[in-house]
Design goal:
Blueprint: H1 4-18, E1 34-41, E2 44-46, E3 50-52, E4 54-62, E5 68-74, H2 81-90, H3 92-97, E6 100-108, E7 113-120, E8 124-129, E9 146-152, E10 168-173, E11 176-178, E12 185-186, E13 188-198, E14 202-209, H4 215-223, E15 231-240, E16 245-252, E17 255-260, E18 264-265, E19 271-272, E20 279-285
Parallel strand pairs: 1-4, 3-9, 10-13, 12-20
Antiparallel strand pairs: 1-2, 4-7, 5-6, 5-8, 6-15, 7-16, 8-9, 10-11, 13-16, 14-15, 14-17, 17-20, 18-19
């Protein structure tokens, strides 16, 4: 997000602190309710203009040449798209706290796709936003990657979407990730139920360490970002407001990973949550290793 330059500097401290943190692990499958297809291109979203209220599974496919994600927000009554974008330029943390963050798909590489099931509980104007910066550090939304759509009240007799069965429950708190004790995360298709217990807005971005790389390599790269990144985007769940839940559909391969939240904290001078300790390494193991 516009977590850009300050995020990179402050995240270094959190990563170094996380080196001694225990690694984790887990297992799963997936399914969702009514579906919306979205394409992320350079620099726009191709998406429906109207969606009914209720639990909805968004499938984001990155058809561009750069990494992209999709953050969903609902504008409060009286706020325009232009007004919100102006607020973002002034102070990202304050601007995000002024809208309802309803989730979204974390960063994907070109050609990749992922699903997220979220609750569009209220009618209104929603925005799809990509905060991922380009090579010059300019957020994609500043290049036009913002799309508005309307959420309309579903008919009273409309069929209710069936929620996915969660393989793992993750709680987001100020400032950390809470997972069940002793959980083992195994490879394959799975669904994680991600709930924000706040009070600030939170996200769960997922990255896989590149082959042969360690958390020390990640910390070194963030201190001096030269050459290929030692982490590979693996999607995840974009930010939700306190009390909201989303279901992220993952397909994980064995390896070492980390989850982090980069949302800036209005209560902590805009520091990214990762710099406040909201980062956690975990490990995905082969199914044959789970005995």
């Amino acid at each position: 997000m516009t977590k850009t330059h300050a995020f990179r500097r402050l995240l270094t401290l959190a990563l170094i602190a996380a080196l001694a943190a225990p690694a984790l692990a887990h297992q799963g499958h997936s399914h969702g309710g009514s579906s919306v297809q979205v394409q992320s291109q350079d620099y726009t979203f191709v998406t429906p203009t109207s969606v009914p209220t209720g639990w909805t599974t968004f499938e984001l496919k990155n058809t561009g040449k750069e990494p992209h994600h999709m953050q969903l927000v609902r504008l409060p009554a009286g706020m325009t798209q232009e007004g919100f974008l102006a607020k973002l330029q002034e102070n990202e943390g304050t601007a995000l706290a002024s809208v309802e963050m309803t989730g979204g798909v974390g960063m994907l590489l070109p050609g990749e796709s992922q699903q997220i099931t979220v609750n569009l509980s209220e009618p209104g104007t929603y925005l799809e936003l990509c905060f991922v910066p380009d090579a010059n550090g300019v957020p994609h939304l500043a290049l036009g990657m913002v799309s508005a759509f309307q959420v309309t009240q579903a008919p009273a007799d409309a069929a209710r979407a069936e929620l996915p069965k969660a393989d793992l429950k993750v709680k987001l708190v100020d400032f950390g990730f809470e997972l069940p004790k002793g959980v083992t995360i195994t490879e394959g298709v799975q669904v994680w139920e991600v709930t924000n217990a706040g009070p600030e807005g939170h996200e769960m971005l997922v990255f896989r360490l590149a082959p042969g790389k360690t958390m020390e390599d990640v910390a070194a790269y963030l201190q001096k970002p030269e050459g290929p990144m030692p982490i590979i985007p693996a999607g995840g769940a974009q930010a939700v407001t306190n009390g909201r839940t989303s279901y992220v559909h993952l397909n994980l391969v064995p390896g070492d990973y980390l989850m982090l939240c980069g949302i800036p904290s209005p209560a902590n001078a805009g520091a990214p949550h990762a710099a406040l300790g909201m980062i956690r390494p975990f490990t995905v193991v082969e199914k044959s290793a789970q005995k």
